[in-house]
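Crash report, auto-generated. Payload:
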Amino acid sequence: MIGSPYILGRNSTSAIMLKVMLALIPGIVAHAWLFGPGIWVSLFLCSAFAIVFEALLLLMRGLPLKPFLSDNSALLTAWLLALSLPTLAPWWLYAIGMLFAIVVAKQLYGGLGQNLFNPAMIGYAALIVSFPVNMTQWAAPVGLADHALTLLDAFDVVFAGQGSISADAYTSATVLDTWKTQARLGTPSESILSQPIFGWAGGQGHEIVALMYLAGGLLLLSLKLITWHIPLAFLAGLAATAGVLHLIDPTQHASPLLHLFSGGAMLGAFFIATDPVTAASTPRGKLIYAGMAGLLTAIIRAFGGYPDGVAFAVLLMNVCVPFIDTYTQPRVFGHHPGHSKGRKS
Amino acid sequence: MNQKLYTFNGGVHPDVHKAESNATPIRTMPLSARYVVPMRQHIGEPARPVVAVGDRVLRGQMIGAAEGYVSTAVHAPTSGRVVAIEACAVPHPSGLFDLAVVIEADGEDQAIAYQPLDWRSLDPSALRNRMRDMGLAGLGGAVFPSYIKLNPGAQKIHTLILNGAECEPWITCDDRLMRERAPEMLRGIEIMRHALGCQTVLIGIEDNKPEALAAMRAAAPAEIEVVAVPTMYPGGGGKQLTYTLTGVETPTGGRSTDVGIQVFNVGTAYSLYRAVEIGEPLISRVVTLTGHVAQPGNFEVRIGTPLADLISAGGGMLPGASGEIIGGPMMGFDLMDLAAPVTKAVNCLIVKNPKFFPIKPIELPCIRCGACARACPADLQPFEMYWYSRAKDFGRAQGYNLFDCIECGCCSYVCPSHIPLVDYFRFAKSEIWEREREKRAADLARSRHEFKAFRLEREKQEKAEKFAKAAEKSKAAASSNADPTAPADPDAEKKKAILQAALERAQKAKESVAPKNTENLPPRVQKEIDEIEARRATVEATTETKE
Ligand code: SF4
Ligand code: SF4
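Recovered output after restart:
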């Protein structure tokens, strides 16, 4: 039953995934430059675990390896998870994260295209619930760390634990964490913000990485790989909610700018919330889905117990996607509002 | 000449590949030895053959008469002898055979006497009836009988749109026709305008055909507007072109005539001119032969010419050809048999090669990227329809407005997972039609059964009444002549009554054998049948979307 069209566009799923990964590269390079070579190790480990798990599960499900492995979707998930996790964490943390992402969230749901939840965010959520301490030890900006790690050091730290170098020498808390703990203790916001880990907008160094993700996201937009709806609605929802909270109580709630340029906001807006499989698909649905995800991110950051809210916000909204899509179907050509709505089954 | 244009959503920009075939003038095909003229070349009822095997026919002689309302006549493409009237290979996606008159040409190409019409003095309805006998049908591919479309009917037609967009890649027959025969075409348009009695006439041509635009502009009178529309597939779809030119959306399940607009293909206008002003029935059309052949180009081909002959006229296939497509690459179908003839619906024959028509890559899972929805000119959500069609949940697929799909192929074209979405939609639609058919048959059977039960019930009641009456009567009789000598035998009386009832029953049964049942159906059953008919009508209306 293979009929017309006899010609196909030049689109392919593997190329799309690859392009999204390319758009991540500016952020990755900035990260390596500003926070040391640890990112290469976590990217490498996550990718390796992703491919091993994916291949294993494909084999168990009796599916051909080549077309499914070469769709690059597992690699993209691996990168997104690696970029959401602290670098320099123990190797098994990445393994467990990828296990949840690939095996539980993706393959057990039926593989590519069938998963309800964003796989990378499932991996992240599983880790932050199970290993909260490991998840707060982020590599310190190169200038602020007492000890600049080489690539070999980084491998050493990841595989052998801290060894001779103390973790305090190369890690630091994130700005979101710092703000939350200290604001709750009553520290005035000026003195929180004057700490060296804070930069001009978000976290020192992290704001540059966020800018690079923004640039990569704009690239995705210009390549028409994503539409504007999700990133814009996500960032607007986040900024608006954070702004309202900030206006109500500036001593407890950080400014919208800090929210936009710290944690997973930019990565989430352009690369995670836009995952087509788990996001809403209609134009209006995307606005609702992403706007709500942004709002929830701000709420979880402000009142929740976790250092960042992007993952849980996205996962919560993933659940709502079928519902949102059903109720935001666009008007079909020739169906006029008020006219009979056409045939219903 | 500053027509405001409207932009519909979606659409794609495949490589147009027009240059392969539009550089050379239209060539006239030499006569073939044999012509296969199918009786079903249009939408609707097939024509009824009016010749017999052995008959000599002349060019332009009617060999199939229009049968029923949605039908049109069929004519002999040349002079010769009818050698067979049988099922032959026809260019149809199903690959099934269909009834055709086979004519062996005598090479003289002798024609009947053509009778031109003085259409200006002719009443539009008389003109339309002539067009039915002239075999006119839409030449853009949908082949809807033209005489019906020339009937404005209850709806007043204010705008006539001529479709010269030719948005399908590779096809150039309308392009060449407009370049070479614009004045004649415009006379055909004048006739259409006369028949429809409409004011505005718009000719839409894609802006990648500057020569055709210029030729048509030069030939068109001031009150007819020739509009360049953006090159974009499917900009030449009837609903899409209507929207581009007027901003009016054809209502779902309806036709453009519902909003006072009628759309004709430019090739149809040219054939109408020939039919009216020359008196020549539709016995030839322009066909694009392109792709992997020695001399691609456009040919004026007699209807019924075997497609193999057309390919030979173009110098034959080149080595490495990998099959043939009838129509364009976006909406066409595979040719199963080269013996099949050119029909009124055949606008293009593409010989495939692996370079331009590579084997389709393996189908991957849908990632819900929405590319298909953004490309869909009908604003549908193809991936949702795909999901439910694949799961054979046709009700849900229909809920996503499956029947608004015009099968343009844009969604399949853009899908990064290379899912043949349109194949799924065609499958789902045919399954739904099949079920409607079955349901209709079942409904009919049920209503028959219900009526029978109703009738039996009625008869039983009537009999019971009669029996009761008869019993009373005999009882009364028995009591009136209470003759003591005559033994009052109530048992015998009862037996008599039973006998009487049995006789009546037999009589009654005889009367009711003649089934005068279909008229006075119970209202509920009648309503059901009406509803089914209405459903079927809308389903059929939506299938006719091209032109
Ligand atoms: S284009 Fe293909 S992969 Fe993308 S949503 Fe449509 S069907 Fe799915
Ligand atoms: S084939 Fe149907 S669903 Fe696909 S793009 Fe065309 S109209 Fe839309």
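Post-recovery validation: Residues 370-479+491-547 of chain B form one domain.
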